[in-house]
Specification:
single chain; mainly alpha; binds zinc ion
């Protein structure tokens, strides 16, 4: 796993693509929650579920189907009514990407088993071809016993900085687009 805080940072970085000033902050809080929830599977270790099992760590809860299910639940339960500034399809897409980003980041770490992206249809575990992120210990005790600093340094480089760059790029492109499109500018000024 990458550490939970870094998964949330990635979700907030993705959120800048969907951000509008009028959107409730609850959207970003729920998006961050969606990005962290897949690691709920670590409780399975306490009940004898093995790492490589269907319900094991980086198993079904890290799959693309789970991301779709969680995005749907977040939308239906969290936002049963229309939301100003973002239509429901885009809102679902944000929750889906926030959740799915978790598996992709885990698949870029250098330890553990890979990610069951296609569970329940195929429980094969995958890593991405490039996996530079230092894997975070599952145990908090081990995380705070010295290895955590190295993990956070690695995540700063490979998650926090790219998320920040994505946010900056999105803001710049949005400004350029609004300048080039007077109609779009008028729409935002209504
Ligand atoms: Zn994970």
């Amino acid at each position: 796993m990458a550490s939970l805080i870094s998964h949330a940072v990635a979700a907030l970085g993705i959120g800048t693509i969907f951000a509008r000033p009028e959107i409730s902050k609850r959207v970003w809080a729920i998006g961050a929650g969606c990005s962290m929830l897949p690691d709920v599977d670590v409780v399975g270790f306490r009940f004898g579920i093995r790492y490589g099992d269907f319900w094991g760590h980086r198993g079904f809860t890290h799959s693309l189907l789970f991301a779709g299910i969680l995005a749907t639940l977040a939308l239906v339960v969290g936002f049963p009514h229309a939301l100003s500034g973002l239509n429901r399809t885009w809102l679902w897409l944000y929750f889906f990407l926030a959740t799915a980003s978790h598996g992709f980041l885990d698949a870029m770490t250098n330890g553990g088993l890979g990610v069951a992206f296609f569970s329940p249809f195929n429980n094969t575990r995958f890593f991405l071809p490039c996996h530079p992120i230092l894997v975070s210990p599952i145990s908090l005790t081990r995380f705070f016993s010295g290895r955590g600093a190295a993990v956070l340094r690695s995540e700063l480089i490979w998650i926090w900085i790219p998320a920040g760059l994505l946010a900056v790029l999105t803001l710049v492109l949005r400004r350029v687009f609004l300048r080039a499109s007077p109609r779009a500018k008028n729409v935002t000024e209504v």
